[in-house]
Amino acid sequence: MRRWVGLLILWLALWCVWAQDAPRVAPGDSLRVTVEGDESLSRVYVVDATGAFRMPLIGLVQASGRTPDELAAEIAKRLRDGGFYRDPKVTVEIAQRAEPRVTVQGAVRRGGEFNLQQGWRLSDALREAQPTDVADLSAVRLERFSGERLTINHLKFVQDGDESANPPLQAGDRIFVPLRAGGRNVLVLGAVRSPGAYEHSEAGTLIAALGKAGGTLPEADTTRIQIRRPDRAEPITVNLNTLQGDVPLQPGDQVNVPFRAARQFIVVRGGVNRSGLVNYAENMTLTQAIEAAGGPKPNAILERVVILRPNERGRQQRIVVNLLEVAKGARADETLQPGDTVEVPEPAQRRVSAEEPLRILWLLLSIYFLITRR
After folding, report:
1. Measured between alpha carbons, how far is 109 from 97 in angstroms, rounded to an integer?
2. Which residues on neighbouring strands pair with residue 342, listed in sequence order?
3. Please, what are the domains in the chain?
4. How far apart (Å, rounded) are the C-alpha atoms in residues 26 and 47?
5. Distance between CA 36 and CA 88 in Å, rounded?
């Protein structure tokens, strides 16, 4: 008996050592997820800066710090609990490791991401980012990927050589260099081509400031631009898409243009020519999603198209749409949401009537008219 207990303890110890040595996922890693029998879910996903990736049907998956086996178990559980599969077989492997990076933003001339070199300290990252003349190096903010936040008086290192004010950097560190109090510049950060500080005389309005920063990036969320003002507790939020006129800025203002959420998808299955994932666009409709999936097949049952929409409780809302009524204008087109699954039914066997090609041609022309008139 003692022999078996000893072997069990040895096995547990070896298992714990193996679990600790198992590779852990980090931001920027590429993961190859395979769901047996489902090509639309089986693909390579990139872990974003927050440590997560978005997967069709189940949504956001927190990956950073976990092993591939742990992720595979969670994905299988969520597919099973959501009623998508009875017994899903899921495997996850790290397809490619991300290069370790640090991010520097704020009152710098070359803000953005930098490859983390071996032995780098705060001074090395700041040297690459080139702080501006109005940078406040006495209050540099350093945020670790673990969530730890530090405020560092880097001037102690610059002026006195104090190494405690020049800490070593870690992969995923985010560094923010603030403006000096009373600065006469406007700081533009986030999803712009050239983030940095600009003279208020040349960036006195929001549109002028964005223009000085090179304009917004394609992945910018221009509906939630924030203006932080030293004398205001809460930021000013601006929707650039509906803005009428311009917004005057004050010296010391900070303009932040956020990035959009990670790319999102719609799953279109059944009686379409290209079944699988469709890139989701804001306010995408059912007819647009079917058109993006190659259009309906000749035998598609368009009177009973089904939209499956996951809710917060892990269940699915079922919406049935008669696409022929939409084509006739008898009912409004259905607006989709990220993560929706569109099922276009088709019969196992169906005899095509002589009028069928004319019916499909009429429907395609109707869908084309609906899309082009928007």
Report:
1. 29
2. 268, 307
3. 14-96 (3.30.1950.10), 100-181 (3.10.560.10), 182-260 (3.10.560.10), 265-372 (3.10.560.10)
4. 7
5. 7
Nearest CA to 302 out of 271, 332, 275 is that of 271
Cβ-contact 252, 230 below 8 angstroms: yes
CA distance 197 to 157: 24
Q: What is the pLDDT of residues 2-54, one digit of tens each?
A: 555 455 555 554 444 444 456 888 878 899 999 998 888 999 999 887 788 99
The model carries a pTM of 0.40
Q: What is the pLDDT of residues 317-365, one digit of tens each?
A: 899 999 889 888 888 999 998 888 999 998 875 555 556 666 666 666 6
Q: What is the DSSP string of 215-252?
A: -B-TTB-TTSEEEE-TT-SSPEEE-TTT--S--B--TT
Residue whose pair of structure tokens reads 């090179």 in the numeric block: 214
Show the tokens assigned to 350.
Answer: 């169906």
